Amino acid sequence: MPKSLKILIACGGTGGHLFPGIAVGEALVARGHQVMLLISEKKVDAEATAKYVHQFAFATMPAVAKPPTLSPRMLPFLVKLWGSIRLAKKLIRDFQADAVLGMQPRQYRAGGIDARIMFALAQCSLGAILVARSDKGVCAIALGDDARVLLRELQDRFPRAELVGGDAAFEQLVAAVIGLVEAPNLGIDLPLDVRGTAFQQRVWQALRQIPAGQTASYAQIAEAIGSPRSVRAVAGACAANTLAVAIPCHRVVRSDGGISGYRWGVARKRELLLRERVT
User: Fold this and answer.
1) 56 with 99: CB under 8 angstroms?
2) Which residues are catalytic?
3) Which of 16, 47, 167, 196 has the fewest CB atoms within 10 Å, counting from its CB?
4) Helix 231-240 and helix 198-207: axis angle, to 10°?
């Protein structure tokens, strides 16, 4: 079984169907996998709900006579549904986000409450650069003309987080990020704390599949994620990206090959593409 597999288990609300679902889920969690149990008063409701989530493996557990011992470790993955598909879809979205994002979805929506974010400001060939990291990974890479503006944007994004200036060890991370900006074709594997909606996550993952030195159109990205009619939404997801170069939205262009907008300026986008083509 592959590592970090995300598995959705649907089981009925009665003990005969619930307990084996918990047992299997707990075994998978112990192996490092991410598991969500959908529990309904009616087994068929859980099965119908699970079909909304195509990227998860799906299994329905058979009945057993004796329930297993519950572990507190399993509690975060135990969700009780009362036949509400709308609630189920919301819980699924939160689970999807929590499986990928470094911060709990509610914590992120609350402006980073109780989060500690380390940051540093520096200069690179493209101007001022801000690098920020949570305890999960790099959560912001921003470029601009004024370092004070970049810091204010970080404060606005996480108004309730504890922002701490980077220490000497953090400078190594900043140096690695600057190296990525100077030579974006190097493809340095940075630990990322990616924050966004499920759709944005799909777009950003597709962007990371574009090789250095190549580009893709918004329409091609929409096709790649299975939403060919969502070209405008793809453009919106690119604009919402807060991890410059690490998530290479600069490699997305118009269908005619022309360079379109870029969160950190079209001139910087053009320069990044030029660097990748030259190197």
Assistant:
1) no
2) 249
3) 167
4) 80
Contacting residues for 203 by C-beta, under 8 A, at least 6 apart: 221, 225, 233, 234, 237, 238
Output the tens digit of pLDDT for each of the chain's 279 residues: 445 566 666 666 555 556 666 667 666 766 666 677 666 655 555 656 555 554 555 555 555 555 555 555 555 556 555 445 555 555 555 555 544 444 454 555 545 556 789 999 999 999 999 999 988 889 999 999 999 999 999 998 888 888 898 888 898 899 999 999 998 877 677 888 888 888 888 899 999 999 988 999 999 999 998 888 889 999 999 999 999 999 999 999 999 989 989 999 999 999 999 999 854
d(CA 265, CA 143): 9
The pTM of this model reads 0.63
**Which residue ranges form the domains of the chain, and what is each CATH number?**
6-100 (no CATH), 114-186 (3.30.160.70), 198-278 (1.10.10.10)
